[in-house]
Amino acid sequence: MGRTSSTKEDAGALFHSLRSAYAATPVNLKIIDLYVGFAIFTALIQVVYMAMVGSFPFNSFLSGVLSCVGTAVLAVCLRIQVNKENKEFKDLPPERAFADFVLCNLVLHLVIMNFLG
Amino acid sequence: MARRLAGFLVLLLVVSICEAAFLFQPISDSHRSAALELFTPDHGSFKSLEETYEALRTFQILGTEKKPDLTATACRSISETVGSSSSTAKDLFYALKANSITECKIDKKASKGIISRLNAAVSGASSLLDFYYSVGGLVLIKDQSSEADVHLADAEGVFRSVKAFSQSDGRWRYSSNNPESSAFAAGIALETLAGIVSLASSEIDQSLISTLKNDILKLFDSIEKYDDGALYFDDKLVDGHEYQGPVSTTSSVLRGLTAFAAVTAENLNLPGDKMLGLAKFFLGIGVPGDAKDFFNQIDSLAYSLKVGVSTVLGSEVPSLTVKLVGAFSSGSKDASLVESEELNFDKTSGLHILNDLPKSIDVGSYTFVFEVVLHESNHEEVYFTGSQTKVPISVTGLIKIENSEIAVLDSDLGSIESQKKLDLAGKNAISLSANHLQKLRLSFQLTTPRGRSFKPHQAFLKLRHESKVEHIFVVGNSGKQFEIVLNFLGLVEKFFYLSGKYDMELTVGDAAMENSLLVAIGHIELDLPEAPEKAPRPPPQPVDPYSRYGPKAEITHIFRAPEKRPPQELSLAFLGLTILPLLGFLIGLLRLGVNLKNFPPKPVPATFAVLFHVGIGAVLLLYVFFWVKLDLFQTLKLLGFLGVFLVFVGHRILSHLAAASAKLKSA
Asked: Which segments cross the bilayer (chain A) (predicted)?
């Protein structure tokens, strides 16, 4: 029993530390995180829909899900490049990273639209 | 037999007997309508006087009532030709020929001029056609104007020079330097020579005429023959230039013969059957499609042979008797069924009528033989009759069908199990049943109206099983009684052991039987034993040959059935659900306290910033259009322009922001 309560406490402490640590992240990174969450949730809803009614227009399903997943991946990439803690991309201005993000999204969605049917 | 050729008249019988009318019309209305079609002038006139003459002559002979009014235009071109000093002998010849029909007025001066010109042409002529046109022209002038004193000074000399073109086989050459000879030329030469004789002021040497007669007889040796007895003249196809075809050639020869026979007082002993053969040829070719052939056919028939004239075109037939010499039943060659009998002549209709059929003639087909006998013996010199004429005649009638009945018999006892009367003239729906130990008997009687027995060509009973397997039996007869007995025991194998319903159909037919019948009698239910193992199978039914060329079965395309779609409400609900994360995203942004403070305050970078966002929006809108209606190429083209614009403004605004943040850092 004591073990359980201590686990709970540990988990609570972990969450607490995580939240406090996350609160320290810059707002622009939070925005990107929010965006990634939004994209992933949208994808999940589509997957649930597919599980319920079947995958008949399979290309449409794939387009929808991949659009979300793809843009989420691109957002993650953007986040990596924008994060100042990453020394690797220290010399890269965040504007340049954002331009890449926009361009890749446009290309991705051109393909998605073509595949949508 | 025939002393004068000009008056040859081949009488063709027009016989009408009771119902079996047999009317032979050599020149029919179809000729008249064909004539109107063929001789249609272009813009009111024909191309040449030759055509004009042919048209006029054809209409004259046929007595076409609706003939186009040709006379006026013809007269104009005739007087033009006659008046002109440059017209050739050929033009003059045809002008005068046409004039012999239209009877236009030619003034005397012109005719004098023509006479002198034609005379000059005769003396200067070197080829057969030159002689033909010039001499023919002179003859026509002589005929048309009684006053004109037309004669040839040196008739005998001209005669000899024309005669020089003759060949040993009876054919003639066109000119002395052309070695080819033809029958067509022979006709022309004979006509020319006849003209010379009629123009001669003194008698022509008789020896010349008799040699000419020999030539004619030789010419007849080269006559050609069709299988049906039709005779015709034809030239070998040499070079096609002067070849005229059999109709023209024969016509030319006949015109020549007629003209020649008209001027010589001598006998021309030509066999009558040859003339008959020639007449057959012209009648046998029907209605020619070519105007020239048509003219030649009509002209020959009317002018030379006078076949149609006597019977169809309305001139009087000399008094004569048509005799029914005999009638033979077809199939049997035994003695004639009737004695010779004269036909009554009906003056008003001009037909010879056999009033009553002889008693011995009953329903069936017969060959009647008729003979034409002339009343006055001197007619025999002028007319030639076509010997005996055989006419196939079918005498038809209603055949009485009596005592028709159908019965099922017991095989061993012969007792009648069930018997039914049939009405073969009406409808029947007999329904019988029998097993393989029984017999089927069908019987009926046929009698002719005169009460004799009648044997039709066909008397069949047909049984058709449900599976379309058919069996046909011939119904035999003894006298009037027709009977067929089907012993099913013996027929079991033939019926392929097929039990079940058989439709029965009776056929009684003959060409002479007016009430030939093909009736469905009804059906019989047969109960046959089971087929043993080795029994023959019924043959496969023949495929209808028409179905092979008929339309194929329509191909229906099977499309994949549309997938089952989810209910619309569910889909709409999920559409709403997908918007939820977006709302969550926006709410999250608000919670984070996002603002637009970094938006450049200066107007130029602000414009670029706005344009950048508008550009992205435009590209996304383009994608929507790509999804809805545009194709990839249109999209890429527009995307190219938008992309360049977007790169430009994007670069400007982002570099401005980068510069601003760098400045902030350094500061």
From this structure: 34-52, 58-78, 98-116
